[in-house]
Design a protein that fits this description.
Blueprint lengths: L3 H16 L32 H11 L12 H17 L2 E2 L6 E11 L4 E6 L2 E6 L4 E4 L6 E11 L5 E2 L4 E2 L10 E5 L3 H5 L16 H10 L4 E5 L2 H4 L3 H8 L2 E5 L11 E5 L1 H10 L4 H8 L7 E27 L4 E11 L23 H20 L6 E8 L7 H8 L8 E7 L10 E4 L7 H11 L3 E4 L13 H7 L3 E6 L7 H15 L15 H19 L13 H8 L7
Parallel strand pairs: 6-9, 9-10, 10-12, 14-15, 14-16, 16-19, 17-18
Antiparallel strand pairs: 1-13, 2-11, 2-13, 3-4, 3-13, 5-12, 6-13, 7-8, 13-15, 17-19
Length: about 575
C-alpha cells in the first residue's frame, strides 16, 4: 500500500490542480497543422468487431514514417491527432470536450544544449562529465539559462523522506543551494530485503519523478540520479534517448509540483569514478543507504555548469471521443491510451545518412491507440446501446511524464465523481496468445474482479507483473487517475505464451526491452502474432460492458491508499453497488 505521507503529497497536488478547472492564463495557440498534417485516406474496410486486420491497419499507419515518431508539437504529432479524430468520427463517436474533439494541453518545450558539460572539482582534481556519454541534464524551470557555480555535492542515498516509514535520507542536513546525488529505486530492491519498503516491488518513492520533486522541496539547486540498469529497469541508452532532444512540461501555472533548476542522471561508471576520487566507495555507499538511519554524506566535490536551452511555449492535444449513454449519460467509463512517442532525433544521423532517426513507437504505444479505437468500434456497433457513457481519450505527453493525462484529470470531460472507472492500454504484447493476463499493480481495485470474470471465460489467469521492482504502475497514464482517487486498471499482455510457455514470453519481453523499447527499431512487423492482442482487448471490452450496462461503482480494495480519496469523493452519493 502507498505510504500515507506520500499519498497526502500526491493528493494535495492533484487537488490544487483540480480546483482550477480552467487554465490560469490563456492557452497558447495549438500548433497549426502543417500542410501535410491531414492523414491520407485509407481504403481499408473496417469490421464491426475487434479484428486483427483492423488493428494491424491502425498500428501500421500510426507507426509509419509518415507520422515521424508522433512527437508532440510537431507536424507528425498533428497528423496523429487528426488521424485519431478521423477514426473517432468514422466510428460515430461525438466530440468529447465541450463540443470539440481536442483538448489543448499547454506545454513548455525545452531543448538542452548538448554541448553542456558538468565541470567537477573533486578534492582539488578537475573532472568533466560529457552530455550523453557520462550524463544527461535538463531543466523544467522554463529558463533559457541555468548557471550553477561550485555547488557542493551531497550523497543523499535514495532521496526519500517518508516519516510513516521512519525513513528520512535528508535528516540532519541542509541541501539548499547544493546538488544532491541520488540512487534510483528503493532500499528494499538493492538490499533484497522484504522488510524495507516493499522489498523488490517498487514504491512511488523509488521513481525518479518523486526523487526530483523531493529534492526540489528540500531546496536543492540540482539533482543527479545514479543510473544502474537493474534499479532503473532499463539501460543507459534509454536514459540518453529519452533525455536528449526536446523535453516537454506543463506550464508551471498548470502544475503545482515543485521544480528543480536543473536535474539529470549520471552513468554508473561516472558515479563510481566520482565517488572514488572523492574518497568514497560507491558499493559501500549502496550498502549504507540500504540501512535504516542512513545519514547523508557531504562529498569532497563541487559541480559547475552553464546549461543553455532553447525554450518555447507550445501546445499539444488530447483527443476525446464520447459514446453517450442511453439511460445515465452523465456517468462515464474511460478507455485511454497515449498517442505520443519520441519523434525524430535528427542529431543521430550518421554522415552517410543511413541511420534510422525516427522513433516510430509501434508497440509503445500505437498498439494502445489502436486498441481503444477497436474497443470503441465494437461498443458503437453492438446493441443494446450502453446505458452509461463511454469516453475514449488518446492523451499526449505520456513520454514526458504523463502530462496529457495529468492535464485531463485536472480538466476532465466528465467529473471525476461521475467517472466509474478507467481502463488504460499501453504497449500491448504482439507475441501470440497467452494463458495469463498481467495486472500491473495487482491487488489494487475491484476492477480486477470484473476482469477476472472475463479471463475465467477465456480459461486464463490473472498474474502480477514479473518485475514489480520496475514500478510500471507509476509509469503510465492511469496513475494520474489513481492519485485523484478514481479506480484505474492497467494490464499487460500475458507472459505464459501458449506457444513456448513462460520461457518464450520472458525471452520476447527481454528482446523487446533490449532492442526496441524507446529505440528506432520499435516498428510495425507483419510477423506479429495478434491473436493474443485480440483476446486481451476482448477481455477489456468485457469489463467496460459490465460497467456501462450495470450500476456498479467499483472501489479500491480495503487498505489501499487511494480508497480514502475515492470514499471522500463519493460521500453523500447513492450507495455504490
Amino acid at each position: 500500500m502507498q505510504a500515507r505521507h506520500l499519498l497526502f503529497c500526491l493528493l494535495a497536488g492533484a487537488a490544487l490542480a483540480a480546483c482550477n478547472r480552467e487554465p490560469t492564463a490563456a492557452n497558447p495557440p495549438s500548433a497549426a497543422p502543417a500542410p501535410d498534417a491531414q492523414p491520407a485516406a485509407s481504403a481499408h474496410a473496417f469490421n464491426d468487431d475487434i479484428d486483427a486486420g483492423d488493428f494491424s491497419e491502425l498500428v501500421k499507419t500510426l507507426a509509419s514514417d509518415d507520422f515521424a515518431g508522433r512527437g508532440p508539437g510537431t507536424p507528425g504529432g498533428e497528423k496523429t491527432v487528426e488521424y485519431i479524430k478521423a477514426q473517432f468520427e468514422r466510428i460515430g463517436l461525438q466530440p468529447g470536450n465541450n463540443g470539440t474533439w481536442f483538448q489543448d494541453v499547454p506545454m513548455t518545450e525545452t531543448t538542452a544544449d548538448e554541448s553542456t558539460a558538468l565541470k567537477l572539482d573533486v578534492d582539488g582534481k578537475a573532472e568533466e562529465l560529457r552530455f550523453g556519454d557520462d550524463m544527461v541534464i535538463g531543466t523544467r524551470s522554463g529558463e533559457a539559462e541555468i548557471k550553477v557555480q561550485d555547488s557542493p555535492l551531497v550523497f543523499v542515498g535514495y532521496g526519500v523522506d517518508a516519516p510513516e516509514l521512519g525513513w528520512n535520507d535528508y535528516a540532519g542536513i541542509d541541501v539548499k543551494g547544493k546538488t544532491v546525488v541520488i540512487l534510483v529505486n528503493d532500499p528494499g530492491f538493492h538490499a533484497n530485503d522484504d522488510a524495507l519498503f516493499e522489498g523488490k516491488r517498487m514504491t512511488y518513492y523509488g521513481r525518479w519523478t518523486y526523487k526530483f520533486e523531493e529534492a526540489a522541496r528540500k531546496g536543492a539547486k540540482a539533482a543527479l540520479i545514479i543510473h544502474d540498469t537493474a534499479g532503473a529497469s532499463y539501460g543507459w541508452d534509454v536514459v540518453r534517448g529519452s533525455w536528449s532532444g526536446a523535453q516537454y512540461d506543463l506550464r508551471a501555472a498548470d502544475d503545482p509540483a515543485p521544480r528543480l533548476p536543473a536535474q539529470g542522471w549520471i552513468t554508473g561508471e561516472a558515479a563510481k569514478t566520482l565517488f572514488a576520487d572523492a574518497g568514497l566507495d560507491l558499493d559501500a555507499m549502496y550498502k549504507a543507504a540500504n540501512k535504516r538511519g542512513f545519514k547523508a554524506v557531504p562529498m569532497k566535490a563541487t559541480v559547475s555548469f552553464d546549461l543553455k536551452s532553447t525554450v518555447s511555449e507550445k501546445s499539444s492535444r488530447n483527443v476525446i471521443g464520447v459514446l453517450p449513454g442511453s439511460e445515465r449519460p452523465d456517468e462515464a467509463v474511460v478507455y485511454m491510451a497515449h498517442w505520443d512517442h519520441l519523434g525524430k532525433h535528427d542529431g543521430e544521423q550518421t554522415p552517410d545518412g543511413t541511420a534510422d532517426v525516427i522513433y516510430n513507437g509501434a508497440v509503445d504505444n500505437a498498439t494502445g491507440v489502436a486498441g481503444i479505437i477497436e474497443v470503441a468500434e465494437k461498443f458503437a456497433r453492438t446493441t443494446p446501446a450502453p446505458k452509461r457513457s463511454l469516453v475514449f481519450v488518446a492523451v499526449t505527453l505520456e513520454e514526458s511524464g504523463l502530462l496529457g493525462s495529468q492535464y485531463y484529470v485536472a480538466h476532465p470531460a466528465f467529473p471525476l465523481d461521475k467517472t466509474v472507472g478507467v481502463i488504460n492500454i499501453d504497449a500491448m504484447g504482439v507475441y501470440g496468445k497467452s494463458r495469463d493476463l498481467v495486472v500491473v499493480g495487482k491487488g489494487n481495485s475491484e476492477l480486477e474482479d470484473l476482469l477476472k470474470a472475463q479471463t475465467d471465460k477465456q480459461g486464463r489467469t490473472l498474474e502480477e507483473e514479473s518485475t514489480p521492482e520496475s514500478g510500471f504502475y507509476f509509469r503510465s497514464d492511469h496513475f494520474n487517475f489513481a492519485k485523484a482517487g478514481v479506480p484505474a486498471l492497467y494490464t499487460e499482455s500475458g507472459e505464459d505464451l501458449v506457444d513456448g510457455g513462460r520461457a518464450a514470453g520472458e525471452a520476447a519481453a527481454k528482446d523487446y526491452n533490449a532492442n526496441r523499447y524507446h529505440k528506432p527499431a520499435d516498428e510495425f512487423s507483419d510477423s506479429w502474432k495478434l491473436d493474443g492482442v485480440i483476446e486481451d482487448l476482448q477481455a477489456l471490452y468485457g469489463v467496460g460492458r459490465v460497467l456501462v450496462d450495470g450500476d456498479q461503482w467499483p472501489n479500491w480494495y480495503e487498505g489501499n491508499a487511494f480508497r480514502a480519496q475515492r470514499d471522500k469523493m463519493m460521500a453523500g452519493k447513492p450507495a455504490a453497488q
